[in-house]
Structure formats: structure tokens, C-alpha cells
Amino acid sequence: MQQTVPKTVQQGVILRLAVPVPLRRLFDYLPPEGLNPAELKPGQRLWVPFAGRKLVAVLVKVVLESPQAQLKPAQELIDSKALFDSGARKLLNWIADYYQAPVGEVYAAALPAALRKGKPADHWAEQWLQLTTEGKGLPESALARAPKQQALLQQLLRAGQQSRTYLKTQGHTPAVIRALQERQLVEWVSGPTVPPPMPAAEATPPPQLNSEQQQVLAAVDCSCFSATLLEGTTGSGKTEVYLRLMERVLAEGRQALLLVPEIGLTPQTLRRIAARFPEHSIAALHSGLAEGERAQSWLAASEGQADIVIGTRSAIMTPLPRLGVVLVDEEHDASFKQQDGVRYSARDLAVVLARNSDVPVLLGSATPSLETLHNALNGRYQHLRMRQRAGDARPPQIHVVPTLREPLEEGFSPQVLRHIGETLARGEQVLVFINRRGFAPALNCDDCGWIADCPHCSSKLTMHRRQRQLRCHHCDYRRPLVDTCPQCHSRSISALGGGTERSEELLARRFADYPVIRVDRDTTTSKQALDRLLAPARDGEPCLLLGTQMLAKGHHLPRVTLVVIQDADGGLFSADFRAPERTGQLLEQVAGRAGRGSLSGRVLVQSRFPEHPLLQMLLEKGYGTFARQLLRDRAVAQLPPTHAMALVRAECEEPAWAEEFLHNARLFMQSLVPPSPQLQYLGPVPALLERKSGRYRFYVQVTAQNRAQLQPLLARVCAWAESNKNRRLRWAVDMDAQELS
Ligand code: ADP
Ligand code: ZN
Ligand code: ZN
Hints:
The chain has 741 residues and is of the alpha/beta class. The protein contains 22 helices and 30 strands.
């Protein structure tokens, strides 16, 4: 972290603070005037003046001398007790060091938004919207002529009350609320902010553990640190293992932390955990919560009231005073890596946190990341496997359907359509996986070759037919759909390629007797919406589910017996060296949705290149063998995880500036450590998506045989770049980068 100049300029009680500014150092202040220094504890927040602004800083330590001259006093102490205990501070300082991140930004990222803004760390009042007596008397079908009002009415009929902040996140506008108020159907009341209620729990008796589960549980000692990869087939009962480990530490009065991918925290998961531990309090931490709710959950976790903490990525930075075990579900998921700001990997931090706290960490996946697999194969992590599906489910059969010379109907081969029809006719369910939302990924003029591009990104616009729009999936630029070519005025405009919307139209027409449920970001704005959308599928009726990777995870749908993967080829030919790994994970996860109940499953994979060796290996030998082969390839190519890799990134509206900056960064680094077989430089090269939201993006890649060589070099290049004065250029260091885009 900061390099202090040895010369002491000022003496007395001095506060060393993490201030949320993009500088990699702490700042010294005098205590607020009139404050008794005995009230100061590291981990408290203070208001401080900084460059003409007032910021929320965190006290990292109290020192007695400072090298800085003319210290200013902090304005005000916010907290009477520390928000971050010493364990949490140790982790945050580690993050700042390892990821070369500004320490003040790390502390800020660890706080929920409300506390980051300086709100008091206690229960504050919230406005709640509730139904009047008249409103309560209405049926859910009322107000059919005003669909927005009806949606709000239905939500209130189900939930009773909803907070103002929550309603905002759900897209209910003030105008809609006012309309219901004018009809005297709803009213505002003021009440405390509370974490959102857990979904109703139906207590279920735990199953008898099978022998593989027993072996795993016997191999994890909860009294000290250990890191374990649990490589278990989908449906092998990993979640049951997590529940048993939780049970063990809860019995000792300790807390359990479960990290899940962004789309893995479904109401279904929460229900399952709540049903197992009805007497324990659970705090959920994810982006779907309103600000006040999130702060409440965070405080419940950090003050030790919550026994079980379930959260997405940023939950790893929550202080947990009684931590007993760290569990990471679907550890391979890309959402565990933060892609901007403080670019940490929550999965890697899970191991650091467990080691710091001397507790076990379990990384679970059916398709482990190559990073974790590497650590397991070289003995740094314990490696446990579960090969059998739990209960009576059997593994699915997988077949490739070649599509190169087939007469396809909107991207589906006749054979696949026939299988879908037969499966539905048997009263079973079908899941169709399509990697792209929207109607078509490009719109093109047949006469002059014009293609609808995003004006701000180096990408094409996706056609969304129902909304009659063209949208950029990178920057969210939208424009109305056109019927004539803007270049040559021809009317022969056609949509190229397929997306979920286009497939939905075909399937709904072909299988008109069955419900077709489309699940993607356009149909599902919240986790609750997804849960509702999937309700018919859970009821077990024959239906056709169709969607993007949102469908690949976390949903237990026992009556799905046929899974169709419309196109397996995308990831096999990408410029990103991680693409085959991701494709393999996705295919295996999607295939794992088949035959989860007592019915056996079948998977049909459409491909234009059925002979592709990677695809062959994946389908014949499974992800485990496939991943081990990829690991050998990576070692030969000197890529992660056998080598450490960091990117120095820069982006700017003026491409030449970004390139020049990176060119100089590389020269600077090379002057410190010349290129060698142990440490190599590449670039500046354009990012895979070269232009995004109007800015050109480049990076320099540095790979090294080990991290110890990389760290000091990155620290120096950050110090060099901080003195760069070009305000229109953004730069970052991305340690263990996951995306080259
Ligand atoms: P995973 O997390 O590995 O995908 P789950 O823990 O969700 O697997 O288990 C898959 C299904 O098998 C769930 O319905 C679960 O209730 C059931 N299950 C898990 N363990 C057992 C067991 N020992 N006996 C019977 N059923 C089990
Ligand atoms: Zn044209
Ligand atoms: Zn764009």
C-alpha cells in the first residue's frame, strides 16, 4: 500500500483514513475538533473535507506522527462503533495490495450504498405502500384496463406492503402509484426498514446422505483452514453438502457464508435454505435489494445477528465476526469477477478470507474453472469428487445433430423439431437453449449490403421485433426499426441469424397446443419475475422453455427430459482464449438440466462442425477430461492458470491517446523488468470489443511465471500512471483478468 516518507512533519493523535478517491494511498487527518480521542476505533466512518468536497472515509488506523504537513481536521465522526472489524480490514487491505486498487475505493466498495453515502448505521424509517380496506377487497383480476396499475395491485395483494425504494427497483412509476392513490386503493405509511421477508418456508426433512456425500463431509474439517474443490456432476447433491456444512457450523454458534453467481440467487434457492434452517436468521445480499434493505442485511451480517449470509460477489467483503465456513456455489461462474472499479475475484477472495479466518472453504462446481482445477490437481487444494446423481436421477444421453447441409427452419433441424413434438406429446417438458436474446443479431440490406451498426460501439445492433427496435447489447443504444435501407432506400431488408425472440415465434406456431415460456433479460426483469414465469414448468405440465443462460443455472425442473442446444459453435472459434472453457461449462450446465427427476433425459446439440475435436472430446468424455486437456494447452501457450496474467487497460474517445499511453506504460515497465521467458509483454492491442460507448479500448498484457514477479511491477506502473494528467483517458490494472473484451 502506501509508501510513507520517513520524515515526520506532524505529531499528535492522527487519523489515517481510506478516502474514496482514485489514489493508491491513505490520507492523514486530525481528529474532528472537540472529539475525545478515546472514542476513535479503526473501522469507523468519518466525514472529511477533500479537494473542496465532503467525503465519507473509513478510519484504518490511529497513528502518532505523520509525514504530511498541515493536516486538516476531519469534520465529523459518523459511527460510535466500528463497521469493519480487524478481520474485515485485513481482507480489504489485502485486496488493495493484490489488485493494485485505490484503498479508499476498496473500502467504499465493501459498504452498501446507503452507508457509503454516510447514512447512520442503524434502523432508519422507510415509506411503505399498502392497500386501503377498499384495495384489499379487490380481486387480482381487477383494473384489467390499466395493466400497470393492475400489476402494482397484484404485487400488493400478494406481498401486503412494499417499500418505496423496492417499488422503484420494480419499475412502478410515481404516476402509477398516484393513480391508485386517487382511486383510494393504496396509501403510504411510515415504518422501519427491514430486510425483505424470506419466502415462506415449508420444512422438509433432509434426505439420507449417499456414500459420496458422506465421504465429502468426512473430508472437510470445520475446525481449521482448508481449501477444497468439490467437483460434482450437476444433480450430484452438492447443495445438500453445503447445507450439512452450514448445519455443522451453525451448531457451534458460527456463521456460514454462501456465495452464489449473479443469476443463481433465486427465490427457489432461498426457500430451500430457509426450509432447512427455520430457526436461524438468513441475510441475503444481492443487487435486487433496495438500498435500505441491503444496508439492513449487511448490518445484520456484520453485527453477527444473521447466522447464514447468502450473497453474490460483493458479499465476500462483508465483515462476518463469527465466520465458520465459506461456500462458493458454481465457482466457475464469470460473475464472481468484478469487471470494473475494484476488479476483484470473489472466488479467489473466498480462499483468502477462509485462510485469514482459519475456517474451511469449499468451491463447488460441476464444471470447475481451470484456475481451481489447476490448484486441485497440483495439490494446493483438496480435490473431492461426486460422480453419481443424487436420488434416482440418471445422467442424460447426448447426441450431436449436424446442421451444415440441413434444411433448417429458423435455425432448427427437422429432426430436432420432431423430437420436441414427441417429448411434449408424452407429457414431458423441453428446454431449448439459445445464446442470444432479441429477434436477430443483425439487420442487413440485401441490395447494398448495409448493416445496422451501433454508432457508439464496434458492434451490430440486435433487432427486437416486438418492441420494433434496434438495440445495442453493449451500450443499450436504441433506435426504431427501419423498413427501408437508410443507404439505398431499398425495401429488401432482412434479419440475419437467430435469437430467442425469433425462435419463440417459430416454436409457438409449431407447438401451439403447449405453453412456450421465454426466459431472457427482456422477459425477466427481476428474480421474482423469473420465479413467476417458471411456475407452470414447476407444476409439471408439458411445456417448452426457451431462453439464454439464465435458464442454465439453479433451476430444478424435474420434468424436463429433452434439452436442445441450438448452436454449440460460437465459442469454438472465438479470439478469446477462455472461450472454449466457457462453452464447455455452458454446454455441460445446460445439458445437466435434463433428467433431473426420475425420468431420464436426452440432450441434442446442433453444430455445423460435429467433427470439431474439442466438441467431440466434450461430448464423448465429458467436461472433466475436456478441461484437463485445455489445461495442458494453456500450459504450453504460457497462459493462465499456469501463468499469472494482468492487463493494463486504457480507453479514450481518441484512440491514439489510449494507444500512446499504453505504449509508454509498456516502455516504462520494460525499463524496470526487461522481457524474458519468465515475463512477457504483449500489446498495446485493441480489446475484443474495440469501441464501446464511444471510447476506444486497448490493453497491454503482461504474463509471468508467478505472481511475485508481477506484483511489484504493477505497483510501479500504477504509480507512474497516477501522475498521468490526461483526464479524458481512463486506465486500470486488471490482475487475473477474465475478459479480453
Ligand atoms: P447439485 O447442487 O449438485 O446440483 P442438489 O443438491 O441440488 O445437487 O441435488 C439434486 C437433487 O437431489 C435435489 O432435488 C436434492 O433434494 C436431491 N438430493 C440431494 N441429495 C440427496 C440424497 N442423498 N438422497 C436423495 N435425494 C437427494
Ligand atoms: Zn441498401
Ligand atoms: Zn453500443
